[in-house]
Amino acid sequence: MSVSCQRPLSTMSHPNDPKLKSFIDVAADSDFPIQNLPYGVFSTPTSAQKRVGVAIGEFVLDLAALESEGLLKVGEGVFAQGGLNAFMALGPKTWTATRARISELLRHDTATLRDNAALRKRALLPRNEVQLHMPFAVAGYTDFYSSKEHATNVGIMFRGKDNALQPNWLHIPIAYNGRASTVVVSGTPIIRPQGQLKPPSADAPTFGPCKRLDFELEMGVVVGGASQMGHMLTEAQAAEMIFGFVLLNDWSARDIQQWEYVPLGPFQAKAFGTSISPWVVTREALEPFRVAGPTQDPTPLPYLQQKGANNYDLNLDVELRADGAKDYAQIARTNFKYMYWSSVQQLVHHASGGCAMNVGDLLGSGTISGPEKDQRGSLLEISWNGSEPIDLPGGVKRTFFEDGDSLSIRGWCQGDGYRVGFGEVEGTILPAKE
Ligand code: CA
Question: What is the pTM of this model?
Answer without folding.
Answer: 0.96
